C-alpha cells in the first residue's frame, strides 16, 4: 500500500507537460523551401484582378449604335434639313394651320370661310415646301402631288378669270397631259438626286 501511494504522489508532483507555443512549432516545408513559399505568397498577395478568357481586363462594353429610322434615312439617303433648322418652323406651321382649320369648322358665317381659307393656305405652303425639299434631295418621291397640284391651281385660276367656259373634256385632257409631263420630269429629277446622294454617302 505504501509503495502505490508513493507512486501516486510522485505522479502528482511531476510538472505536467505543456504543448509548445505555436510560434516555436515546426512548420511543414521549413527551411529554404518554406521561405520560398512565403515569398511567393507575399508576391501574390493583393487585390485579385478579374480576367475574362485569359486576356487583360477591359472596361464596360460600349452600347450598340442606334439604327436610324426611315424618317431619318431612306435607301441610304439622309433626310434633308430646312434652311431654318433646327428651328421647327415646319411643325409650327402645321400646328397653326390645323388649329385655324378647326376654329373655322367650329365657327359659322363669313368668318368661317375666311378662317378655312387661311388654314388651307398655310397648310398648302408648309406641305409643298416639305415635299419639294424631300423630292429634289432624293429622300422621298412626291411626284404625283407635285405634278397635280400646279395643274389644279392653274385650272382654278382659269375658271376664276374665264368663268365656266374653261371646263369640259378638252380642258380635262389638257390638264391630264400637262400633269403627266410634269410627273415624268419630276420622276427623272428624283432618281438623279437619289443616285447623287447615295454616291455621296458611300464615299
Describe the structure.
Strand 1 (73-74) and strand 2 form a beta hairpin. The chain is an all-alpha fold and 203 residues long. The chain is flat. A two-stranded antiparallel ribbon has the order 1-2. It is built from six helices and two strands. Residues 22-55 have low confidence and may be disordered. Among the domains are: 80-136; 140-203.
List keywords for this structure.
203 residues, mainly alpha, two-stranded antiparallel ribbon, 2 strands, flat
> What's the alpha carbon Rg, rounded to whole Å?
46 Å
Trace the largest sheet across and list its strands: 1-2
Give the low-confidence spans: 22-55
- Report, as a whole number of angstroms, the end-to-end distance: 117 Å
Number of strands: 2
The global form is flat
The ordered string of helix (H) and strand (E) elements is HHEEHHHH
Which oligomerization state do the chains in this entry correspond to? single chain
Return the structural class: mainly alpha
Amino acid at each position: 500500500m505504501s509503495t502505490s501511494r508513493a507512486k501516486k504522489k510522485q505522479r502528482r508532483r511531476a510538472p505536467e507537460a505543456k504543448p509548445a507555443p505555436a510560434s516555436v512549432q515546426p512548420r511543414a516545408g521549413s527551411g529554404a523551401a518554406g521561405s520560398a513559399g512565403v515569398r511567393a505568397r507575399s508576391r501574390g498577395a493583393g487585390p485579385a484582378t478579374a480576367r475574362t478568357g485569359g486576356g487583360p481586363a477591359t472596361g464596360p462594353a460600349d452600347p450598340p449604335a442606334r439604327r436610324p429610322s426611315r424618317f431619318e434615312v431612306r435607301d441610304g439617303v439622309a433626310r434633308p434639313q430646312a434652311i431654318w433648322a433646327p428651328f421647327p418652323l415646319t411643325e409650327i406651321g402645321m400646328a397653326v394651320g390645323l388649329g385655324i382649320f378647326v376654329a373655322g369648322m367650329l365657327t359659322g358665317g363669313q368668318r368661317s370661310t375666311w378662317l378655312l381659307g387661311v388654314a388651307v393656305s398655310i397648310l398648302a405652303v408648309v406641305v409643298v415646301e416639305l415635299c419639294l425639299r424631300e423630292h429634289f434631295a432624293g429622300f422621298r418621291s412626291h411626284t404625283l402631288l407635285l405634278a397635280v397640284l400646279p395643274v389644279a391651281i392653274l385650272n382654278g385660276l382659269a375658271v376664276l378669270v374665264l368663268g365656266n367656259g374653261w371646263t369640259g373634256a378638252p380642258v380635262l385632257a389638257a390638264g391630264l397631259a400637262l400633269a403627266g409631263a410634269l410627273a415624268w420630269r419630276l420622276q427623272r429629277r428624283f432618281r438623279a438626286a437619289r443616285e447623287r446622294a447615295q454616291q455621296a454617302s458611300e464615299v
